[in-house]
Write a structure and sequence with these properties.
The chain has helices at residues 2-20, 110-116, 149-153, 182-186, 197-211, 222-232, 254-257, 276-292, 320-333, and strands spanning 26-41, 47-49, 58-60, 64-78, 87-89, 121-125, 214-219, 237-243, 262-266, 297-301. It has a single domain (2-35, 69-333), classed as Rossmann fold. By secondary structure, the chain is α/β, with parallel strands linked by helices. The strands form two sheets. Strands 1-4-6-5-7-8-9-10 form an eight-stranded mixed sheet, with helices on both faces. Strands 2-3 form a two-stranded antiparallel ribbon.
């Protein structure tokens, strides 16, 4: 039995490697902004600003109409389409669409993987992040993460395992996160706010209205956005893949989404983590409510599926292609792949 399992794993690895080496043929690619609104700012003093050292000052009047709360999305449309619907990829807190692009270790990420599988892919920077831009009118202060914060919070290492000295850092046994690329990962970090969920959801709804029906993939913070958008547009979001979502949906609205298949995926070390065990249990409890209402939701713990060592940043782990293959198989099983 062991020989068969090893042979199967080797075959899967060879197939994954061969897939990653295939060129990506596109019929189109591009980008756009959606959503947003205008606001008026008044009563501010006019200033003189020198934009370039040694340059001529410019008089700037900050009063007037501003465009705010829009969202940026880029798209890649494959030549040989096999995914029946567009696949939308939404990132987590303090991050941007880079989450799904090239991994910190330089290897292809999930955007490339699913393009090679024949999906039209849309990758967004949520409202307030990255190329979507932000405004000084948000309530509250932006949140920035120190270098060591995600090491333990994203389950790369246990409590007390972080050290500024690379040689002294500790990890969970068998971690799949490429720890040699941790600093490269942290270069992706962008400021986030904790007061802008309503505006973020509004922008995602605008995106869904533009390009869907679709399959939506969410991660971490965007898990709650995925559920809210699904609840608002159950006719547009045909499937939801929730990778380590920080929250489930609204339990009072499960009847409206019970016909939509959902996969809820958790990595390793979550069941024993003081914070993530509670997050995961909340997801499991929500899944129970949805199932009781006749809904279709699968809770997938990766270790139970034979994939061990995954951090919170599953799509950046060394075995990310194997996890992506599991997602692809799930989507195919739900009838979303030709």
């Amino acid at each position: 039995m062991l020989r068969i399992a090893v042979a199967a794993a080797a075959t899967a690895l060879i197939a994954t490697t061969a897939l990653a080496q295939q060129p990506i043929a596109l019929r189109d690619m591009g980008s756009f902004h959606v959503g947003g609104r205008h606001i008026e700012i008044t009563g501010q003093p006019i200033k003189e600003i020198v934009f370039t050292p040694g340059g001529v000052p410019a008089k700037v009047d900050p009063n007037g109409t501003y465009q705010v709360e829009q969202m940026y999305s880029q798209y890649f449309l494959v030549q040989n389409r096999k995914g029946k619907l567009p696949l939308l990829m939404w990132h987590g807190g303090g991050l941007s669409g880079v989450t799904y692009e090239t991994k910190p270790d330089g290897k292809p990420g999930w955007m490339n993987y699913f393009l090679r599988q024949g999906w039209d892919v849309y990758v967004s920077d949520a409202m307030e992040r990255g190329r979507s831009g932000w405004t000084n009118q948000f309530k509250g202060e932006p949140v920035f993460l120190p270098l060591g914060d995600p090491w333990e919070r994203f389950r790369i290492g246990p409590a007390g395992s972080w050290s500024p000295d690379k040689a002294k850092r500790k990890t969970y046994p068998g971690t799949q996160f490429p720890i040699e690329a941790y600093e490269q990962f942290m270069k992706q970090g962008v400021p986030r706010w904790v007061t802008t969920d309503k505006q973020i959801v509004a922008a995602y709804i605008a995106l869904v209205d533009k390009v869907c029906p679709c399959v939506v993939m969410v991660h971490s913070q965007s898990g709650t956005f995925g559920y809210q958008v699904l609840e608002a547009r159950p006719d547009k979001v045909k499937a939801l893949v929730a990778v380590e979502p920080t929250r489930g949906g609204d339990r009072s609205k499960v009847a409206s989404i019970k016909s939509t298949p959902i996969a809820m995926i958790y990595g390793d070390f979550a069941k024993d983590h003081p914070r993530w065990s509670k997050i995961r249990q909340g997801g499991v409890d929500y899944a129970g409510v949805l199932k009781a209402a006749g809904g279709s939701i699968d809770v997938i713990d990766l270790p139970d599926a034979g994939l061990r060592g995954n951090s919170h940043m599953v799509m950046m782990d060394r075995n990310s292609d194997e996890v992506a293959a599991l997602i692809q198989k799930w989507l195919a099983g739900k009838g979303f792949v030709d």
